[in-house]
Design goal:
The structure holds two protein chains of two kinds. Chain A is mainly alpha-helical. Chain A has one domain (2-23, 50-309). Helix content of chain A is 73%, strand content 1%. Chain A has 14 helices and two strands, in the order ααααααββαααααααα. In chain A, a hairpin with a 2-residue loop joins strand 1 and strand 2. In chain A, helix 4 crosses helix 5 (117-136). Chain A is globular and about 75 Å long. In chain A, 50% of the residues are buried. The mean pLDDT of chain A is 89. By secondary structure, chain B is an alpha/beta fold. In chain B, the strands form four sheets. Chain B has a six-stranded parallel β-sheet, sandwiched between helices. A four-stranded parallel β-sheet of chain B has the order 7-6-8-9, with helices on both faces. In chain B, strand 6, helix 6 and strand 7 (182-189) form a beta-alpha-beta unit. The longest helix of chain B is centred in the first third of the chain and has 17 residues, at 38-54. Chain B is elongated, with a radius of gyration of 21 Å. The A-B interface holds A 26, 28-29, 34, 37, 41, 44, 140, 142-145, 155, 227, 231-233, 238-242, 278-279, 281-283, 285, 288-289 and B 160, 186-189, 193-196, 198-200, 202-204, 206-207, 223-224, 226-227, 231, 247-252, 254-255, 326.
């Protein structure tokens, strides 16, 4: 437990260092108002990373999150166009339910048909995007077609931060409780840590993986509405490639791709690290040709740090022998 | 000379307009990528306008139900069987239509392509909606028109390797000398992703507090930049402009985040394609490199070495006309 804490401390330190370096080139970046803006901008990534973390912890991966986001977002936008007076609460409920359903499709295929998760979600990723195309024939839904309360909800200001940011906070707190204090949360760790042992303790591995996919899908659906409302546009390709950012956030945050290890706080920090890099690059005046390389290098360095700090020291079996050396 | 010809045709048009299209009318087929697309419906409207103006011309507006080359080949074959006088096609595939269109030309049918061209062998002339030079000039002009005293502008492009955008920006830089006082302070890339474009636009406003305009020659970028400007509370201070579609930009025009933007006008395009087809079919003009062909109210086009020509400057959309076009495309 203690080394996990220190891993998060290192990541937190890295974020602070990064902020310091950016501040030397562009001081306004660390103004409180801008930090709130960066946090809000990173919120979709944080919410998705929470779900992805649960999935990766069970030794699976969900590559369909961005496509789920795009499909659910599009459906929310279409509902809004058809019924502009529908309250946002209903839209939120629809997005959560629909996202969960799409996640459940992944979950069922992994659970009941034992197809490798990477294959399942690669497939559904394309299918979800294809469905958007079928629904819309490639047409966009644009700002002027959406109602003001639909697009206004995520950016409404509450105590100095937009609702979008608060939703990320809320989701993180819920996930923190779920992962640490509920049977489901502990089963997710158990299934990823050692599936065979989990079976012997009476945990259904497939069912737990299914639950993780539902959580991931539900959060992707929620983000779908928030994303579409924030950028006030819905089309087939929204959030294209975003699933890779989500996986990267988890990995940077110390979630082990082999499952079983990783924390909510670490994942949040991983997402924030990426968010700070993404928001800082445009203002520090670095050639755009270098930006991609810098983003990639930042990810590898962060992961290398993590791997280093997370490396188990090896168990000392013979104390006396160690002393003798 | 050309003008008098136009006047006579208008006069003839006025005379013939009274009765329904006679059987010996010239029939020009406007073949589109697919039926039911707002852009092409508007082009057909322009074609009808041209037909009225010329007189004695019947427009056959047709196309497949989905955007496939196979569908268009079928449509063109049936047009050949109907012995139409001219075919003006916006192709779903540059090469696939060539054999069928060659067959049409062998039967004496005039073939031109417009909007989306076919390979040189498959048509007599091609009409581009605009040219790179005209677009490059237009995007900076859009920003400069609202900055009489000069100012700082930044470019938000697609990806660093997007050919079209890079050419347009290059063409823009060539004519910067004509816009005194306008300074391009930065060029950033939103990768045609809404979130990255939004972030880049936000970054531009932060690193250049005096920024007066963002030029985004890409439809994803311009929408995202307009949203970023609105969210930053900088409407009226930073004008977002560039290339976008009326349906996608209607909200930004309404909010004031964008004062104006440009893209082709499908009505003008359909009109010009019909005019061009008519000129060639009546042998009033001959297609060949350097040929100057009058296209009615759109002026005169000059064919280049590949028998292609640019119609006009991109059409400017602003609050005065956005409502007429936002439902179209």
């Amino acid at each position: 437990m203690s080394h996990l804490k220190s891993r998060e401390a290192i990541l937190f330190g890295a974020i602070l260092c990064l902020l310091f370096v950016v501040a030397t080139r562009f001081p306004a970046f660390v103004a409180p108002g801008n930090l709130v803006a960066v946090f809000t901008d990173t919120s979709p990534l944080m919410i998705l990373a929470m779900g992805q973390m649960a999935v990766i912890l069970t030794r699976c991966i969900d590559l369909s999150v961005a496509a789920n986001l795009a499909l659910t977002g599009m459906v929310c936008a279409m509902i809004n166009v058809a019924a502009p007076d529908l309250p946002v609460a209903v839209i939120l409920a629809v997005s959560l339910a629909m996202g969960a359903m799409l996640g459940a499709i992944n979950g069922i295929l992994v659970w009941k048909l034992s197809i490798p998760p990477i294959v399942v979600t690669l497939g559904t990723m394309t299918i979800f995007r294809g469905i958007i195309f079928l629904l819309t024939e490639g047409k966009w839904i644009n700002a002027h077609e959406m109602s003001p309360q639909f697009t206004g909800f995520p950016r409404a200001d509450v105590l100095g931060m937009p609702v979008l940011g608060w939703i990320a906070v809320l989701v993180s707190i819920v996930m923190l409780v779920v992962m640490a204090r509920t049977t489901l949360g502990r089963s997710i760790y158990a299934v990823g840590g050692n599936p065979h042992a989990a079976v012997y303790t009476g945990i259904d591995v497939g069912k737990t993986q299914f639950a993780a996919f539902v959580i991931s899908g539900m959060l992707a659906g929620l983000t779908g509405y928030l994303w579409v409302a924030r950028y006030s546009v819905a089309y087939v390709d929204i959030a294209g490639g975003f699933e890779l950012d989500v996986v990267a956030a988890c990995v940077i945050g110390g979630v082990s791709i082999a499952g079983g290890a990783g924390t909510v706080v670490g994942t949040l920090l991983g997402a924030l690290f990426l968010g700070v890099v993404k928001n800082a690059l445009p203002v520090v005046d670095i050639s755009p040709f270098w930006q991609l390389a810098i983003s990639g290098a930042a990810i590898i360095i962060a992961v290398a740090f993590n791997a280093q700090s997370g490396r188990s020291k090896g168990r000392v079996i013979l104390k006396s022998a160690e002393h003798a050396q | 000379m050309k003008f008098t010809k136009l006047m006579t045709s208008v006069a003839v048009a006025a005379g013939l307009f009274a009765g329904p299209a006679a059987a010996d009318d010239m029939r020009i087929a406007l073949v589109v990528k697919a039926l039911g697309i707002g852009f092409f419906e508007a082009a057909a409207e322009g074609a009808e306008e041209a037909a009225k103006e010329i007189g004695g011309v019947e427009i056959i507006y047709t196309g497949p139900t989905d955007t496939t080359a196979e569908g268009q080949i079928e449509v063109i074959n049936s047009l050949i069987a109907q012995k139409v006088d001219a075919i003006a096609v916006s192709a779903n595939d540059t090469d696939a239509l060539v054999p069928t269109l060659k067959k049409a030309m062998q039967r004496g049918i005039t073939v031109v392509s417009w909007d989306s061209g076919v390979a040189e062998d498959g048509r007599q002339a091609h009409l581009n909606p605009s040219s790179n030079a005209l677009i490059g000039n237009m995007i900076i002009k859009l920003a400069a028109d609202h900055l009489p005293d000069g100012g700082e502008v930044a470019v938000l492009s697609a990806t660093t390797t997007s050919t079209n955008q890079n050419i347009w920006i290059e063409e823009m830089n060539k004519v910067m000398g004509n816009y005194a006082g306008i300074e391009v302070v930065s060029t950033v890339y939103g990768d045609d992703l809404a979130d990255k474009s939004y972030r880049e636009a936000t970054g531009l406003m932060q690193s250049h507090p005096e920024l007066d305009a963002i030029i985004a020659p890409t439809s994803v970028g311009i929408v995202a930049a307009a949203q970023a400007v609105a969210d930053a509370g900088k409407i009226g201070q930073v004008n977002v402009t560039g290339l976008g579609l009326p349906s996608e930009m209607a909200g930004a025009i309404e909010s004031g985040a964008s004062k104006s933007f440009a893209i082709w006008n499908p009505i003008d395009l359909g009109y010009s394609a019909t005019m061009l087809a008519h000129q060639l079919a009546t042998e009033a003009a001959t297609a060949g490199p350097g040929a100057e062909i009058s296209i009615g109210r759109m002026g005169t086009i000059t064919l280049d070495d590949t028998n292609a020509a640019a119609m006009a400057d991109p059409f400017v959309y602003d609050s005065s006309n956005i409502d007429d076009f936002k439902e179209i495309f």
